[in-house]
Amino acid sequence: MKKVVCPGSFDPITFGHLDIIERASSLFDEVVVAVLVNKTKKSLFTVDERMSMIREVTSEYKNVTVASWSGLLVDYCEANKIQAIVKGLRAVTDFDYELQMSQMNLQLKGVETLFMSTAPAHSFLSSSLVKEIAAYDGDISGYVPAQLVERVKSALSNN
Asked: pLDDT by residue for the chain (159 residues), tens digit each?
């Protein structure tokens, strides 16, 4: 069984994230979407809220599960018998950073990293941009699933 992980903060999950998750689910037996627990980072949603939203918007993919992790991703992979990491790349700047991480992960624990280029329609998209647009009452319906639009706006108004 080929099991991979798609890691990230997913704060919130966007159509760009979903594109990578959907494509990975068609290629691998099991895809774990792993939400990073980072207590030093100020997030809009809690880890549990992000996991719940991801489960909701990926429910149609029967081979996708959602979990969280803290610490080194390669340790999580080793503990959960995950053979590879799948990362989406939007631009060359993503590649510079992700290449270093992939080489370190391979060196540390022998975990491979597979890069998928983001679909052109989502190549500019990030959770940070979605939050910024929503903070100024902009329309984010083209960037996040419909059921999350009001949650993002509500969370921003409560912060």
From this structure: 799 999 999 999 999 999 999 999 999 999 999 999 988 888 999 999 999 999 999 999 999 999 999 999 999 999 999 999 999 999 888 898 999 999 999 999 999 999 999 999 999 999 999 999 999 999 999 999 999 999 999 999 887
SS3 9: coil
- Name the active-site residue from 23, 52, 68, 90: 90
Per the annotation, the verdict on 62 as an active-site residue is no
User: Which of 9, 17, 25, 102 is an active site residue?
Assistant: 17
Kindly name the residue from 41, 42, 62, 81 that is annotated as catalytic. Answer: 41
Using alpha carbons, select from 54, 57, 4 the residue that is nearest to residue 30: 4
Domain boundaries, the chain: 3-124
**Is 157 labeled as catalytic in the residue annotation?**
no
Q: What does the block give as tokens for 126?
A: 């990030």
Which one is catalytic: 9, 25, 43, 127? 127
Active-site residue 127, yes or no?
yes
Question: Which CATH superfamily does the domain covering 3-124 fall into?
Answer: HUPs (3.40.50.620)
Active site (annotated) includes residue 23: no
Which three-class secondary structure state does DSSP give residue 120?
A: helix
The reported pTM is: 0.94
